[in-house]
Input
Amino acid sequence: QHGRRPIQWSEVFDHFKTKLPKEVIVHVWKAVTNVTEVLVDGYNVIRNVGYNNESWYLDNLDVMWDHVYANEPCEGVPTDELCAKVLGGHGEMWGETVDASDVQQTVWPRLAAIAEKLWSPRSATADAAAA
Output
């Protein structure tokens, strides 16, 4: 009634599958969760697949901005119709790897790469070299 929807981590979907109410948004952050399955089963998704060389986890300090930019939220999603159900993603920054003395150089420009990737049409962000 207030326009709010619950968000559940991928582990909840992996356990309950289609027993979850359809208004649930599934936050897929684990590579073992099949994003296409979640979408085909009728759920919306927020996506960020964990610690890898394209991670959106900003405390993964070895990942450079162009690798972050290459992370496509709809990768592996077979159709544009299903991709439309991917609502977006986000970048996480855990406090144990940053403080006031280094927040700018730790977070930027990777957070800017995430923002551009999520706010721009897919056709405009397909090539990191053009960013």
